């Protein structure tokens, strides 16, 4: 366990030092602020802001889970695996008294930790901006946004694990990132042309938080979609780990 924690701490430090991580944390603060300013401007200029008042939190979440976080997670997963393979620095990690399984787990846990941190930062910034913007029912909107941000961790973890699995098949960052982005785009766009695919496409669940808003979806639908995300996560983790264990560095 100590070797896993030490390796996890090392992977966390790697991600923290990346410019993309700092950029995401910066956007987590800037985006809700800009959206709040926009709604206030619309309200003052044309009286349109009332319809969007208090919605900065959910608008921010839609942007992060739909575009920004999947891209960040793909970039980070590629750098932690394919990037280190290309740079041959992953060999140094394997020299330490840590198994491949623990090294793999530590990288996945680091991605999970920063997923939660970025979403928490966006939620906190959105909540503060929401208090400033004013709302007819701030407590209800705060509770709804809190639930939405919390449950969004689940599909984002599944997306990160899919990116990790894809990264195992490449020895260079550019090709791995290109493939991860293409898979994501295919998973998002194909259901638009063939709707039945939406049920089985992992990337159709990036807006899973919408099922929890308002009155919420039926419990059966929430449970079935959760198990689909869990199944994808397990398959991606096991598939990625099996490939990582056999890979030559």
Automatic annotation (TrEMBL):
Name the record gives this protein: ABC transporter permease
Pfam families associated with the record: ABC2_membrane_4
Residue ranges of the TM segments: 23-43, 63-82, 103-126, 146-167, 174-194, 222-244
Keyword Transmembrane helix listed: yes
Keyword set includes Transferase: no
Keywords in alphabetical order: Membrane, Transmembrane, Transmembrane helix
PANTHER family, per database record: INTEGRAL MEMBRANE PROTEIN-RELATED, MEMBRANE PROTEIN
Top-rank taxon: Bacteria
């Amino acid at each position: 366990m100590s070797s896993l924690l030490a390796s996890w701490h090392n992977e966390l430090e790697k991600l923290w030092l990346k410019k993309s991580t700092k950029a995401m944390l910066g956007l987590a603060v800037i985006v809700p602020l800009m959206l709040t300013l926009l709604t206030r401007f619309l309200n003052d200029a044309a009286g349109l802001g009332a319809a969007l008042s208090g919605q900065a939190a959910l608008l921010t979440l839609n942007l992060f889970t739909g575009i920004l976080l999947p891209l960040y997670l793909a970039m980070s997963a590629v750098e932690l695996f394919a990037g280190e393979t290309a740079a041959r620095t992953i060999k140094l990690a394997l020299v330490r008294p840590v198994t491949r399984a623990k090294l793999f787990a530590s990288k996945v846990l680091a991605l999970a930790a920063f997923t939660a941190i970025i979403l928490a930062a966006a939620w906190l910034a959105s909540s503060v901006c929401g208090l400033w913007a004013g709302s007819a029912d701030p407590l209800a909107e705060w509770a709804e946004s809190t639930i939405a941000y919390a449950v969004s961790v689940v599909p984002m973890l599944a997306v990160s694990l899919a990116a990790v699995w894809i990264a195992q098949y490449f020895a260079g960052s550019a090709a791995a990132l290109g493939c991860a982005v293409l898979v994501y785009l295919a998973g998002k766009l194909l259901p638009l042309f063939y709707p039945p695919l939406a049920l089985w496409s992992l990337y159709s669940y990036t807006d899973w938080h919408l099922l929890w808003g308002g009155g919420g979806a039926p419990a059966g639908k929430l449970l079935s979609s959760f198990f689909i995300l869990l199944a994808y996560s397990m398959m991606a983790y096991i598939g990625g780990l099996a490939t990582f264990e056999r890979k030559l560095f």
